[in-house]
Amino acid sequence: MRIAFFLAAYPVLSETFVIRQIRGMIDLGHDVTVVTGKYHPEVADPLAGKVRLRAIRTACDPHRSIPSRVAHGAAALLGSRFRGTLLRAIKAAKGGYNAPLADLAGTMGRHLGSYDAIIAHFGPPGVRAEFLRSAGVIDGPIATIFHGLDITEIALIEQMKPFYQQLFARTERLLPISNLWRERLMGWGAEDRKITVLRMGVDIDEAAVPAFDAPIQSPLRVLSVARLVEKKGIAYAIDGVAKAKSDIRYQVIGTGPLEQELHAAAQPSDDAIAFLGPQPHGRVFAELGQSDVFLLPSVTAANGDMEGIPVSLMEAMANGVLVLATRHSGIPELIEDGVCGLLVDERYGDGIAAALDRIAAGAVDVVKLRQAAFEKVVGEYNNRKLDRQLEAVVAEMKAGR
């Protein structure tokens, strides 16, 4: 089948889940095109030679300002039957949302292709894809995958919610990554019949079963891998480690805007806490393999930003590492407390400390939890199965169902 992935920008190497899903469709034998609002030629393309690329704009293009592109594109479209879409885009731009108008102008009347399905990652690109289809610039049924920031950040929702509701009426499918997001979309007016929950997942070698009975170490080895931003809750992890009575060695892999603030918070516990900075994939998995606990105490940020369901938790579970996380967003859909991991409330350092002390004291059946976690990920968050699920959705879209 002919599948287009519509992305705001490409390549974006931090969006590994997007690149992996595209690769999954390629591996299943589909003809895949990446349609992007902005192409970054200075970034190495991990899918070079494997996908077609249709770029509306190039990040390094100095030749035209946006107003000039808008003028040229508008001239190309005004005489066409797509006048209504252009007027809708102009109205959106007057309200502060410029992307659809810039997209229409950037195509310069070029057709971006006809597809059996157009898969947009994140809500705003879904809206943009619908504008382009309405203008006849791209053809095919549209499905939009909603992840997290796109339906939680307060300022973004204030701007985008009316456009999302237009998308709900015009699109064929909506693919939230969690049941919680499904409920949110329905609360905003989306029809249940259009919604399919499509998880993000991890690559799992089902033959490489981890050692569930590995003994807990002393000192307890705890690891977090996260961008150092508010919603990852690393400040509460530091608080929990500092308050724990057990001997703990806590390592944090990642970087971000809160790095200096978190270093300062960890200074009183400097012997127990180490910041390793950003690390390559191989080093991350090496550290994961030597850890007893993967800790990710996610919180809702002040701007409303929330997790979807963090892939890092799935990777830890697939590798036989006990997970300790929070009752946040879709995380309880992945981790049932006391069954395949441990959960505490958000912003609760005392709860993290108590859980770590229980693990260190042998009061948690880690063998049972590790095995149940592995089985959960293999059964429900396995990319091989999720690729087939997306393929089935695309087939239904192609058939008009």
Architecture overview:
This protein has 401 residues and is α/β, with parallel strands linked by helices. It folds into two domains: 2-201 and 382-398, Rossmann fold (3-Layer(aba) Sandwich); 220-380, Glycogen Phosphorylase B (Rossmann fold). 41% of the residues lie in helices and 16% in strands. The protein has helices spanning 16-27, 66-78, 83-94, 99-107, 123-134, 154-170, 179-187, 234-243, 259-266, 281-289, 311-318, 331-334, 349-360, 366-380, 383-398, and strands spanning 2-10, 31-39, 52-55, 117-121, 142-146, 173-176, 220-225, 248-253, 273-277, 293-296, 322-326, 342-344. It has a six-stranded parallel β-sheet with strand order 3-2-1-4-5-6. The protein has a six-stranded parallel β-sheet with strand order 9-8-7-10-11-12, sandwiched between helices. Helix 12 (331-334) links the parallel strand 11 and strand 12. Helix 3 (83-94) packs across helix 4 and helix 8 (234-243) crosses helix 13. The longest helix is centred in the middle third of the chain and has 17 residues, at 154-170. The radius of gyration is 23 Å and the shape is elongated. The mean pLDDT is 93.
